Write the structure tokens for this entry.
Amino acid sequence: MENIAVMTPAQHAGQAADRPERPERPERPVRPVRPKFPEPSETGIDPAGTAEEPPRAVHREYRRRCRIPVGSALTAAAGTAAGAFAAASAGGLEYSGSILCSTGSFWEILGMRLLWGAAFLLAEYILGFFALGDMLVWTVPLVCGLGTGAALTGAFSLRGISAALLIPSCAASVGAVICGAGVSAAMSAQLLRLVSTDKSSIVAARPAAGEYTLRFLVCLAILLGSFIAEAAFRSFSA
């Protein structure tokens, strides 16, 4: 058998004392814990677009559609051209021109023009509270364009080139009706989407009725400003 040396505790202590001390290792920085983001199934938002959109997405779609009333603008332009052609070809220039060339006081002209423009905005405002109002609201700028085109054509036949001063107010009034049609169509689309989605999401979401009304008040203010300028011009130039 081989001889095995047995060391005493004192020898162990002496040998440990003779060893060089190891340098202390620097402490590793603690990495921050990143928060765990919820899965799309937990939030209810599907990136692929297969799940139903939340109420906030409906409001974003409503605002997006309010900014792009291209269809209403094209419809109003077509109506203006058709109204001008109909007034020139049908021989009703005197009647159509009297809408913009009739004399009267400032308040009489303002009241008559304001009733004309406010009727279109009121029709658009009411159609916005129907889920299928988007299918009918395009007719409002069409009719407004028809009347404006016929009235301007008649005004040029009665007053000549001086009737060109009426173009800015007419363009502003038609523009307000176009904007109102875009807002109304967006509101109808929002209501249609809320009706067609799950009932639980309808309870949590509500249509932006306050914002909808505010947008129409802005359109009405534009309409009122244009008609005030027109009434002032017509009353003082008569």
